[in-house]
Amino acid sequence: MKSITILGIESSCDDTSAAIIQDRKILANIIANQDVHKNFGGVVPELASRAHQQNIIPVIESALKNANITKNQIDAIAFTRGPGLLGSLLVGCSFSKAFALGLNIPIIEINHLQAHILAHFIEGNNSTEKVPNFPFLCLTVSGGHTQILKVKDYFDIELIGQTIDDAAGEAFDKAAKILGLPYPGGPLIDKYAKEGNPNKFKFAIANLPNLDFSFSGLKTSFLYFVRDQIKLNENFIEENLNDLCASLQKTIIDTLLIKLKKAAKETGINQIAISGGVSANSGLRNTLLGEQENSGWKVFIPKFEYCTDNAAMVAIAGYFKYLKKDFAEMDVSPYSRNEWK
Ligand code: KG4
Ligand code: ZN
Hints:
2 domains, binds 5'-O-[(R)-(carboxyoxy)(hydroxy)phosphoryl]adenosine, alpha/beta
């Protein structure tokens, strides 16, 4: 059978990314991060869409070059349709249409959250070279989402739990902002936490009765705690940065684990995957590996480059849709909120 070559494009938030996949093998995965948001404590949508406009052509040129293919070898273009920032999504969507029209090839629309999950099927994505069997549970934890999903097939995914307020990544980023760290704070908290004592400070875990999460209370209690301590000692943050990061990170991981264990018990599924930016967190990765021993779980952890936003995951999702000939019409437009079907 002839190989299928897909160009994947991701522009839902603040990373402009292009990837080339041939069947399930990634030939190139280029990501341009946007430094413009660093000092704002979060992504500024207007700046993000402008930066996508500037980055998209160079990123695609680099992807083609790295993959060592020409544009005429692409069979279809897969792009993130949503959810995300509308102005950012419009750049990837419009570019895909124009490029596909020029090349006379189909376009494929991809749900960003589905792409995070399907990243597990990229060839060689995890150290064991194994892919999860259906059904498996996936904890998707990113800057915008915290969900537990029952994945029954590539495109048959049931949402069984989610955050009712902030996402786990948001909890990391907001806490980092309180500590005076730049955006995105998650990777920095991860770094400082490695040197800290996770049991030094205790923060309450919100435990909702079902499989849902809540992180907004944690942010508030963290804010009040730090504020009160600063009144007593103005150097409190500097003197306790590592312990603060380790304790906060532990609270977030514990919160996630409680629900993941509950979901595994209720569904009887012991294949557990994680995805999304927060799945890059070393504490979460180690905790899950520990559960492999303790709970008999079979754990699937993506490579770092496929955790945070990337076009490789869009390309693999595009590959599976290409096999079904599930192409989008030229009047397709992005959606900002999730349209989970
Ligand atoms: O999936 P992603 O790149 O974008 C969204 O779809 O939101 O996730 C970004 C989120 C940010 O909140 C960032 O702080 C968090 O992932 N993140 C981390 C780590 N790396 C990225 N959080 C904790 N530890 C990390 N190592
Ligand atoms: Zn994402």
